[in-house]
Amino acid sequence: MANSKQVLFQKRRLRVRNKLRKTNSGRMRLSVHRSNKNISVQLIDDVNGVTVASASSMEKALGVVGKNNIEAATKIGAAIAERAKKAGVEEAYFDRGGFLFHGRIKALADAAREGGLKI
């Protein structure tokens, strides 16, 4: 099978990343990874190759350990927006990877926008 789920996921992921690279104007990249149990997000400076801030559902301080729902994604989105402000970042590109923009991914992005991060 040429078009397995993994192949289609990789195609989507590369398509999103290449589009971000072409339109990048020095902004940071807000990269999201979602698994069946957890969701994590990183604010990455591609110019210097460093992670500026991150948040994950595995952090006990956020109080969402073990929850893989929209409520947990909302808390993580708010946390990354707060940490981005502390790092002095006002706007970033939203890199959803190969994940579709709905459900937990959408909830995380909306919460980050409400927290003051321009995506």
Short characterization:
This protein is of the alpha+beta class. The protein is 39% helix and 21% strand. Strands 3-2-1-4 form a four-stranded mixed sheet.
Quick tags:
119 residues; alpha+beta; Nucleotidyltransferase, domain 5; 21% strand
What does this entry look like structurally?
By secondary structure, this protein is an alpha+beta fold. It has one domain: 2-Layer Sandwich (Nucleotidyltransferase, domain 5). The protein is built from 3 helices and 4 strands, in the order αβββαβα. A 4-stranded mixed beta sheet has the order 3-2-1-4. A hairpin with a 4-residue loop joins β1 and β2 (39-45). α2 packs parallel to α3. The model has no long low-confidence stretch (mean pLDDT 90). It comes from Thalassococcus halodurans. This is Large ribosomal subunit protein uL18. Belongs to the universal ribosomal protein uL18 family.
SSE blueprint and pairings:
Elements: H1 5-23, E1 28-34, E2 39-45, E3 50-56, H2 70-86, E4 92-95, H3 104-114
Parallel strand pairs: 1-4
Antiparallel strand pairs: 1-2, 2-3
* Main sheet strand line-up: 3-2-1-4
Query: Any guess at the CATH architecture?
Result: 2-Layer Sandwich
Overall number of domains: 1
Rough outline: globular
CATH topology category name: Nucleotidyltransferase, domain 5
Number of helices, where a helix is a run of at least 4 consecutive DSSP H or I residues: 3
Structural class: alpha+beta
Distance between the termini: 36 Å
Strand content: 15-25%
Q: Give Rg in angstroms.
A: 14 Å
* CATH classification class: Alpha Beta
**Total number of beta strands:** 4
